[in-house]
Prior knowledge:
The structure holds two protein chains of two kinds.
Chain A: H1 7-10, E1 18-26, H2 29-44, E2 48-53, H3 60-71, E3 77-82, H4 88-94, E4 100-103, H5 113-120, E5 130-134, E6 151-157, H6 164-167, H7 169-173, E7 177-181, H8 186-189, H9 193-203, E8 208-211, H10 220-228
Parallel strand pairs in A: 2-5, 2-6, 3-4, 3-5, 6-7, 7-8
Chain B: H1 2-20, E1 25-34, H2 41-52, E2 61-67, E3 70-72, E4 79-80, E5 84-85, E6 94-95, E7 107-110, E8 114-122, H3 126-131
Parallel strand pairs in B: 1-2
Antiparallel strand pairs in B: 1-8, 3-4, 3-7, 5-6
Bound molecules: guanosine-5'-triphosphate, magnesium ion and zinc ion.
Magnesium ion is lined by residues 60-61, 89, 134 of chain A.
Amino acid sequence: xxxxxxxQVTLEASPDEIYDIELEHSLLEANGKLAVENRTLLDKxxxxxxxFMGAIGSGKTTLITKLVEKxxxxxxxxxxxxxxxxxxxxxxxxxxxxxxxxxxxxxxxHLDANLVxxxxxxxxxxNLKMIFIENIGNLICPAEFxxxxxxxxxxxxxxxxxxxxxxxxxxFLGAQVVVINKIDLAEAMEVxxxxxxxxxxxxxxxxxxxPTSCKRGAGLDEVTETLLxx
Amino acid sequence: xHEFSIASGxxxxxxxxxxxxxxxxxVEVRVAIGEFTQIEEEQLRFxxxxxxxxxxxxxxxxxxxxxxxxxxxxxxxxxGPPKYWEGVISGTPIATLExxxxxxAARASEGEECAIRSVRYTQPNEITELTR
Lengths: 230, 132
Ligand SMILES: Nc1nc2c(ncn2[C@@H]2O[C@H](COP(=O)(O)OP(=O)(O)OP(=O)(O)O)[C@@H](O)[C@H]2O)c(=O)[nH]1
Ligand SMILES: [Mg+2]
Ligand SMILES: [Zn+2]
């Protein structure tokens, strides 16, 4: 300590002697705490937030738009859209006439609980039952940053090739639902949907996997039911 | 690059330490990273070194300790090392959440951390400090 009164003590130390101190401090804790705060706020209002992760272009916006279409007449729905640069995605969803919050991230890498918390304070939470959060298209980053949602959905698509689950295992470990999208293209891509499902289950046996085609509408009822039951 | 966010959080904590202890010079920080996280050692180190280059903690080294994962199974009460998925694309076996004993879904009980463990510092002679 640089207190002048402590001179006597520190004099004994030679200038380059090395000291160790324990400094236990979690680097994920700050975000983790905010995620818990978000969750408490959401629970207080009876809102279920679902967070969608997945590679760029896997179909997150398309899927969320379809879900909003199905649900908006039954329950209050809002969408948070994390887009690094543009508002195209947010605009597409806003066309559905539901509240949309666009969240621009600083490093363009992932949403964090702080940004989502700010978003939650921007909208009217009364009457909302569900918030869909579209994370930035990125398979590696968002896994470490919980947002306060009740469930995480990973959206992958067959166009990412046959090995995408094996290449990005961590994303799946923290998720509750996996959507394998664009199955209408599976044959053309020579990708086995079955194999992708097996790969996901090899990592996490109890995860729910739903193959979909947002284009043709396949599997969307099952996604809706699954999310409503969360 | 989530490593950038993590490095920033780490550096913030270290600058805080440096500010509270102006008589100590940070030489090393030790960080533990769990196997179930997807934090890249090399990227984290790169971010750390680039960010601190102009800071009072410049020159300090980052030492990363890899923490192996462990799982606990609610179905059969297994507790121990995870089942590894061998022979996958990357060559490195992947720790899974499949219970090695009964095959059902287990939970990660260790290996999810990313935390500072300790710091090392030197304490230059106080006399020099005071007469400066
Ligand atoms: N063939 C086919 N195309 C799809 C399907 N779902 C989405 N797409 C198309 O895939 C493209 C990307 O879809 P988005 O919904 O924008 O993907 P995203 O995951 O939101 O992308 P980013 O936000 O940029 O990461 C669009 O051209 C969609 O029309 C599908 O089931 N089948
Ligand atoms: Mg999108
Ligand atoms: Zn078991």
